[in-house]
Design brief:
It is a single chain. The chain has 727 residues and is an alpha+beta fold. It folds into four domains: 180 residues, Immunoglobulin-like (Sandwich), CATH 2.60.40; 150 residues, no CATH class; 119 residues, no CATH class; 148 residues, Histidine kinase-like ATPase, C-terminal domain (Heat Shock Protein 90, 2-Layer Sandwich). The protein is 60% helix and 16% strand. It has 19 helices and 20 strands. Strands 1, 3, 4, 6, 8, 9 and 11 form a seven-stranded mixed β-sheet that branches. A five-stranded mixed β-sheet has the order 15-17-18-20-19, with helices on one face. Strands 2-13-7-10 form a four-stranded antiparallel β-sheet.
Length: 727
């Protein structure tokens, strides 16, 4: 910039004939298009009419400044304030300015802080040079003039003419006046605006703090939403003129570019949330309430477009949605007001005033109303009025709530008094009814106690019946098992007695022979004859055979008795360490009489001693194995295709017992009721329905579990899980 200044100063002293000729040429060419500045003595800068400028839209943004300067197709701006709309295009503005005053430097200001980037070129003395460039991609204080707007040195010396070429790129709406003035005029114009915006910001902060204090006092959510709303409105309306970029985040180009859309969307969303809470839209106008939610969703979409790189589309969505949502909110408040909800009246007034300010602000850019300080700050002025009116509305809402609370309290007191009278009257009636009801309850209680006693007696009888059934099964099994070895013993006793009698007779005869007075050879011959007569060798063999049979029968009987002793332990109330495999084996002894034509497979694992109630577990095994054998016989009958598999294994700190059959199986309904007391699938008289219920309770008592896997028509598996150490 210093080089440009030196260049311009140098040209002051080297103003040549060529420059005069060029000036005449430009003036003749421009004719009425030349804007003559003569305002250096005034206190305010001059607004250059939009009609002085020509505009060229570069949709691809591919033109160089030389190409743009020499390009055809420029169109005159047909209004006082330049309005280029919202576009991703690059715009080139061209105008001829004559500095008819003694002012230098002569500054040009584009009064639109939302421009992303602007460059100014000056054509003078046959040269087209870049005077300055300002971009939001650079820190704020890199600018030559520290102004929120875009301020450039035109390079126009006193009493000289320059042709200006301005390059503009923006994702926001390009509606702005163009001003010329001295450095002092431009600075004073900006200072006045900053003062007004500071006043506006102060009002917003004061109102926010006041309502935040009220919120902490009354804890009404409306106040908190209102504070968030007016703070976002304040930030939005100071971001749009660029003051937040200047004072809050001068080093953040990202915030400078995204801030307007972000805060505008967030402010609008906060406004909608405040409207929903303050006007109770869901309560009063449910359908319109959901419409407000749709607008919030559209604002989110606009934000996403802006943050993902399409700021122009995001800004357009924000603008259009804000306009429609504002009118929708106005209609919503009117509908609620017609329903007689008093706070809606204040909101209707406040929102109408704000919309009027917005309309005036837009009309100012369109040239319908004059461009001055009042119209420029119409939106801020009406925002302050809206903020104040809504504060009044919130205060009035507190009065309404207080009045409603007082009325409710009065009604509550009246109701309490009436209730006290009714209670007093009813107490007498109730006392009599209570006495009467007490007698009825006593009689009913006596009846219930008798029924409970009868039920317990019946339950005990059923449990005893189940025990007797198990005892009968046990007795039948033992009788069947012990009968064979006993029969074997008894059948051998009679022939053994006969052989012993023969042996004794023979021994007596041998004794008589031994007493004869004969030679030894004669006695030996008679004894040999006697042995041959009694078939002594066969007799010895038969006696040995019969004794072995009796020994085998008695041993088998002893084993059966031992199994019975293991199975029917009487230490059920004491925890003992027991061998689960041994308990299963003793159970198989008991049910051996039911195993006809059923193939038994035993897969016993190496198990540690388990802390349990052995007798109770044996009862569980008996019930489940008996049920399995019954299911197998029900399906296979006398065929030798029935199978029963009993297995045990250890996993971590638990042992598992599997009892699996290929019997009838069961469906889901039966599985659900399997452990219910008195439920049975057997025919009447074949079971009490308590066996599996008792088994389930026994396993629960061991802190274990029973899993049932069954397929109808294929078979069933009971998987019992018991901890090794009882916990």
């Amino acid at each position: 910039m210093n080089g440009i200044t030196r260049y311009i100063n140098k040209e002051r002293f080297r103003f040549s004939l060529a420059g005069l000729i060029l000036l005449l040429f430009v003036c003749v060419k421009a004719r009425a298009d030349v804007f003559i500045y003569k305002n250096d003595k005034a206190e305010v800068s001059t607004v250059v009419p939009g009609m002085v400028w020509s505009v060229l839209e570069d949709k691809e943004g591919a033109l160089t400044y030389q190409q743009a300067f020499n390009a055809t197709g420029y169109q005159k701006i047909d209004r006082q304030i330049a309005n280029l709309g919202v576009s991703n295009s690059v715009f080139w503005l061209k105008a001829t300015v004559h500095n008819g005053a003694n002012s230098y430097p002569l500054l040009l200001m584009l009064e639109q802080p939302q421009i992303d980037k602007a460059e100014i070129y000056s054509f003078s003395n046959g040269s087209l040079i870049l005077v300055d460039s300002i971009s939001k991609w650079e820190p704020f204080y890199n600018r030559t003039y520290h102004d929120a707007n875009y301020v450039f040195n035109t390079g126009a010396l006193p009493d000289s003419t320059v042709e200006l070429l301005v390059k503009i790129k923006s994702s926001a709406q390009l509606v702005f006046p163009i001003k010329l003035g001295t450095e002092k005029q431009i600075a004073e114009s900006s200072d006045k605006k900053e003062l007004l915006y500071a006043l506006f910001s102060g009002i917003i902060i004061v109102m926010s703090l006041y309502n935040l204090f009220v919120y902490f006092t009354v804890r009404d959510k409306s106040y908190l939403l209102y504070v968030i709303y007016i703070l976002l409105v304040g930030v939005t309306q100071t971001t749009l003129p660029g003051f937040t970029f200047k004072y809050l985040w001068p080093q953040s180009s990202w915030m400078a570019l995204q801030g307007p859309t972000i805060f505008a969307c967030l402010g609008a969303m906060a406004a909608i949330e405040f409207i929903k809470e303050f006007l109770r839209t869901k309560e009063h106008v449910r359908r319109l309430h959901y419409g407000l939610l749709v607008f919030n969703g559209i604002f989110v979409v606009g934000l996403l477009f802006s943050l993902t790189g399409n700021r122009t589309l995001g800004f357009q969505i924000m603008q259009a949605n804000t306009a429609i949502a504002s009118l929708y909110s106005l209609y919503t408040s009117y509908r609620i007001y017609k329903l007689g909800y008093r706070p809606a009246k204040f909101f209707l007034y406040a929102w109408t005033i704000l919309l009027i300010g917005a309309v005036v602000f837009v009309l100012k850019d369109s040239g319908v109303v004059p461009y001055n300080t009042l119209t420029t700050f119409a939106l801020q002025i009406t925002s302050v009025i809206e903020v104040v009116l809504l504060s009044f509305a919130l205060a009035d809402k507190i009065n309404i709530l207080r009045k409603e609370r007082e009325e409710a309290q009065a009604l509550a007191i009246t109701a309490a008094q009436e209730n006290a009278r009714i209670v007093k009257e009813q107490n007498v009636i109730l006392e009599a009814k209570v006495n009467e009801r007490t007698k009825e309850l006593k009689a009913s209680n006596d009846g219930l106690n008798k029924a409970l006693k009868d039920l317990k007696d019946a339950e005990m009888q059923l449990v005893e019946s189940e025990k007797m059934a198990s005892l009968g099964q046990l007795t039948a099994g033992i009788a069947h098992e012990i009968n064979n070895p006993i029969n074997f013993v008894t059948s051998n006793v009679k022939p053994l007695k006969r052989d012993v009698d023969m042996l004794i007779t023979m021994l007596n005869q041998v004794e008589e022979i031994s007493l004869l007075d004969e030679p030894a050879d004669g006695k030996r011959q008679k004894i040999d004859s006697l042995k041959e007569e009694y078939d002594f060798d066969y007799l010895k063999t038969e006696i040995q055979y019969l004794l072995n049979g009796i020994h085998e029968g008695s041993s088998r009987t002893a084993e059966i008795v031992k199994g019975l002793r293991i199975f029917s332990r009487l230490d059920e109330d004491d925890l003992k360490k027991a061998d689960i495999n041994e308990g299963l084996e003793s159970t198989m002894v008991i049910v051996n009489n039911q195993i006809d034509n059923v193939r038994i497979t035993k897969n016993y694992g190496d198990l540690p001693l388990v802390e349990c109630y052995p007798g109770k577990l044996n009862q569980v095994f008996l019930n489940m194995i008996s049920n399995a054998l019954h299911a197998v016989k029900s399906r296979h009958g006398n065929e030798k295709t029935g199978e029963l598999t009993i297995g045990t294994y250890r996993k971590e700190d638990k042992v598992y017992i599997s009892i699996k059959d290929n019997g009838t199986g069961m469906n889901e309904d039966t599985k659900k009721k399997l452990f219910e007391p008195f439920f049975t699938t057997k025919d009447v008289g074949e079971g009490t329905g308590l066996g599996l219920s008792i088994a389930y309770n026994t396993i629960v008592k061991h802190n274990g579990a029973i899993t049932v896997n069954s397929v109808l028509g294929e078979g069933t598996e009971f998987l019992i899980e018991i901890p090794i150490v009882h916990q």
